[in-house]
Amino acid sequence: MDQPSLDKHQLAGLDARERGFNRPVSFVQAGEGYRAILRYETILIETEPHATQDEALRRLVETLQSDGYRQLRTQVSFRNGIYLGSQELWVEYPDQAIEPEPPGLMTKLLSWFRPSRPQE
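The chain above was modelled as a monomer; its predicted structure follows.
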């Protein structure tokens, strides 16, 4: 499945249940593009083909973030079939902004009974 001339990355972060993880991400050639593949516990995530391996990796990270994964970062461990170990720097991906939920009915009702702050 893995092709020796393709990159491999380590992907680390917190999963949706707030557990730390560190797993390899491999790539496969798909026609003119590349797919990123991650296996984590019982999950197999494979991206659609993208023009570059970096684009496929970015899409994989976005997919994980939309599923609740946080503090994601990657490090190249193989480049063009050459083992790099931990020579390369980690690339960190900012967490997606979480939009606050609109206030519910109880919050609105309780706000009517809270004393308002005097203006200074």
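Residues 53-66 form the longest helix (14 residues).
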